[in-house]
Amino acid sequence: MTLTSSRSGTRSGRRPAHSAPPARWRSRKVQGWLYAAPTAVIVGVLFLAPLVLVVWMSLNRWPLLGPARFNAPDNYLKIADNALFVDAVFFTLKYTAITTVLLSAVALGLALLVQERGPGIGFFRTAFFLPGAVGFAAAGLLFYGMLNNDFGPVDPMLQALGITSEPVKWIGTPDMALFSTIALVLWRFAGFNMLILLTGLQAIPVEVYEAARSDGAGRWQIFTRITLPLLRPTLALMLILSVTGSLLAFDQFFVFTNGGPDNSTVSMVMVIYRAAFFRFDLGGAAAMSVVLLVALVGLNTLMMRRLR
Amino acid sequence: MSRYLTLSALAVLFLFPLVWSGYASMEEPSNYLEMARFGEGVGTYTTNSALVSFMTVAGTLAVSALGGYGFARFDFPGKNLLFLATLAILMVPYATILIPLYVLLGYLGLQNSLVGLSLVFVMFQLPFALFMMRNAFEAVPRELEEAALVDGCGTFRAFSRILLHAVRPALITVGLFAFLASWNDFFAPLILLNDGASFTLPVAVVSMTSQTMGAIDYGMLQSGVMVMAIPCLILFIVLQRHYVRGFMSGALRG
């Protein structure tokens, strides 16, 4: 660290940084704080304060309008009786499991296909990633139109190919609604996850493959014995991102299925949202948020430990 | 060869929805006209979205560039604690602190405000942005800065005149991520904005589906999708290099 701003001496006359005068050090400290101050304000006011507030809110009867009243632990006790939330927990876990497995498989397949450079590979990478640049809400509306029985192109195409004989109830039954939502999520996120895996694949030295090949290893052997083990940290990261993202799913269900049919696709975050803005029970919503937050931080810590 | 056949089939599958949406939105030219007149007018929503994105990008760049420089080149008490607190934003699920943020912005007089929404976006962008900028400043040779300081510049002048120039690629990456996040986000504006006139595009267009229940104009809906998607697609294609680089160097290791 050089502290020579006020000095005009020759280069050879410069003292090494560690012998700089203490007064300048203090001013470096102040300067450092000034540069970091905006960060501190944003993190303090918009992150740490709401973190404390959400816990405080969860201990109060907190209507959307009107004064709050301390009522702990009622908001927490209420959660177990909230049938919608309990159902949502099971639904969200099911959704998370299916999505994570399929997303990993598809992303890995794509990454392996575009791993080696070659003519046109850049185009394919871009093509697979491009849906990721579209907002999730926009993507939901796109699928909403595309899978519509009267307006969308998918039904006529499937019928022309002889795959189906009548319009499919894409979001009309609980199972199909889940299926269609997962198709939407795969379309929107496969390229993103492919990109994550590509960074991991490219970190594997070419020599490792060459050595394996000269030892007579087949393609499947190379994949299971070399690629997968060496890709483990990257796969772990992708897994954590996918699990966290899926457990917090909201947009896809709000925009695309609207929780239907018959509340069969209501996710946990959707229940929190409804509690706050349909039932105006911010305290209850805060309690569910705290539970979700603790569960997710715990889960993330656990996954990071196990998967390292 | 069979690899290219598979790749082509997959590319069709991935690109088809975008191509179809573009086609469906233009099938009847009136789609965009109706869309323009919907609610407060698509112009209002686009302006709101553009304002929020602009404030988010500018705010994120300013806060993370100053902070990144501070973290890379200065020592001060509480430095590590602040850095960890910033990274902790990544650990806390987005959705769980939006409800207290809604209450908190009310205390600050920023409820239903595009400024309040932008500040929230800046906060969510900060872990990635600060991490990127700190690394970028650390990679700048110290000699560059020292030369300026020797010439009598204060650290701020050295920062604004010379160092900012040297970290331009990181600034572009951070700005691109901030734009895509703020332009596309649906949940935060849904909660933090409650007046139709201040809605951003995603909230406004999604509300088209519920307000016109039973008689949804699907063509108009797709023109809304296109208005939202096209700026992102163009920006992504133009700045793809920066996106991928940011991805490799920061987004994933935070």
TrEMBL record, chain A:
It comes from Nonomuraea deserti. The keyword Membrane applies. The chain crosses the membrane at residues 33-59, 95-114, 126-147, 176-198, 235-256, 276-299. SUPFAM superfamilies: MetI-like (SSF161098). Belongs to the binding-protein-dependent transport system permease family. Residues 1-22 are annotated as: Disordered. CDD domains: TM_PBP2 (cd06261). This is Sugar ABC transporter permease. It is a multi-pass membrane protein. GO terms for cellular component: plasma membrane. It is found in: Cell membrane. GO terms for biological process: transmembrane transport. PROSITE patterns: ABC_TM1. The keyword Calcium does not apply. It holds the Pfam family BPD_transp_1.
TrEMBL record, chain B:
InterPro entries: MetI-like, MetI-like_sf. It is found in: Cell membrane. It is a multi-pass membrane protein. The chain crosses the membrane at residues 45-69, 81-108, 114-133, 218-239. Keywords: Cell membrane, Membrane, Transmembrane, Transmembrane helix, Transport. Pfam families: BPD_transp_1. One of its GO terms (cellular component) is plasma membrane. Its main location: membrane. Belongs to the binding-protein-dependent transport system permease family. This is Carbohydrate ABC transporter permease. It comes from Nonomuraea deserti. The lineage of its organism: Bacteria, Bacillati, Actinomycetota, Actinomycetes, Streptosporangiales.
